[in-house]
Amino acid sequence: MPSRYRDELIERCEGQMVITIDLVDPCLCIYPLPDWEKVEEQLSQMPSLRAQTRQLNRLLIGSAVDLELDNSGRLLIPVRLREQAQLTKQVMLVGQLNKFQLWDENKWNELLSADLEDIKHPDHLPEELMNLVL
Question: Residue 50: how many CB atoms within 10 A of its CB?
Fold first, then answer.
């Protein structure tokens, strides 16, 4: 974990993290424990008889693994999750507000290039983003 995040994560969640698969992108999602608990709470409120709810729980909760930052700020990613996201030696850790995404570097660079091309076409953006002030 980069040092610029490490101190805040230790203060905020004592280095307790949860990692799981991403449902859309070929990457892993790493949540500080308090943020993951919010996700779990939202999932627990969904109707359990719905097939999609059970599927979502199987994928997200079933793949989730508790992690803890070691003294050097490292996380040990389980092999099955590394394989699921097809991570190689070179990875990218990308901040996403309430979580991080962990990408294979080549896949991240490909997606970033494609996203930069797409964003150049304003008709591609939903209406609510057209009023966003950056």
Answer: 10
Residues with Cβ within 8 Å of 25's Cβ and at least 6 positions away in sequence, in order, are: 101, 103, 111
pTM for the whole structure: 0.88
Two tokens at 81?
């999750």
Angstrom distance (rounded) from CA 25 to CA 102: 10
Domains and CATH numbers, the chain: 3-105 (3.40.1550.20)
Helix (H) or strand (E) holding 62: helix 51-63
User: Are 13 and 32 spatial neighbours (Cβ–Cβ below 8 Å)?
Assistant: yes
Cα–Cα distance for residue pair 99/92, rounded to 1 Å: 14
Q: Are the CB atoms for 103 and 27 separated by under 8 Å?
A: yes
pLDDT digits (tens, 9 = 90+) for 32-44: 999 999 999 999 9
